[in-house]
Design goal:
The chain is of the alpha+beta class and 171 residues long. 29% of the residues lie in helices and 31% in strands.
């Protein structure tokens, strides 16, 4: 995910915030805040290429349309948790239900293992059934429910905690 794509990535994040079922965040971060909160590796975007040669497109980013993004955040600064990361996957409203989320999450799992991540976790609002189904289809299992963990607006929200343990890393 090159910084040049941040405006489109940010717009997809805005769409997710607007659903009320994707995150507790209510304000969009600027690039610096988002960049500092995510691991430098395992930042992926799904691009619609408009039928042109991919080499040419990479030199002309304005010809690309971002369909979705995925990234990892560290769960702790403690060394013992260096192989545990929190998953974020967001898909543009216009691309939902087309397999973009699945492609991103599968690629994120693969990239995370290549970078030594042994456990991925996701905190998902129980109402976000598409995200729950997506994560479960990619090998995540429900660990538990964090009841009324935080408020979004004036409403306490529950989140389901899911995790995926690598069969390749940290055995």
């Amino acid at each position: 995910m090159p910084p040049e794509l941040w405006p489109e990535v940010r717009e997809i994040y805005r769409e997710g915030i607007a659903t009320g079922n994707a995150t507790f965040e209510t304000e969009l971060p600027d690039w610096e805040r988002w960049d500092n909160g995510h691991l430098k590796h395992c930042r992926l975007v799904a691009l619609e290429t408009m039928g042109e040669d991919i080499g040419e497109l990479l030199t002309a980013l304005n010809k690309l349309r971002v369909l979705g993004w995925a990234a990892l955040s560290p769960v702790s600064t403690r060394h013992v948790y260096r192989g545990v990361a929190e998953v974020s996957v967001y898909v543009a409203a216009s691309a939902r239900g087309c397999g973009v989320g699945k492609a991103l999450l599968e690629a994120l799992v693969e990239a995370s293992e290549a970078h030594g991540i042994w456990t991925l976790q996701a905190s998902i609002f129980r109402e976000n059934r598409p995200s729950l189904a997506l994560h479960q289809s990619c090998g995540f299992r429900k660990v538990g429910v964090r009841r009324k963990i935080a408020k979004l607006g004036n409403h306490w929200r529950d989140v389901l905690l899911l995790e995926r343990r690598s069969a390749k890393v940290g055995l």
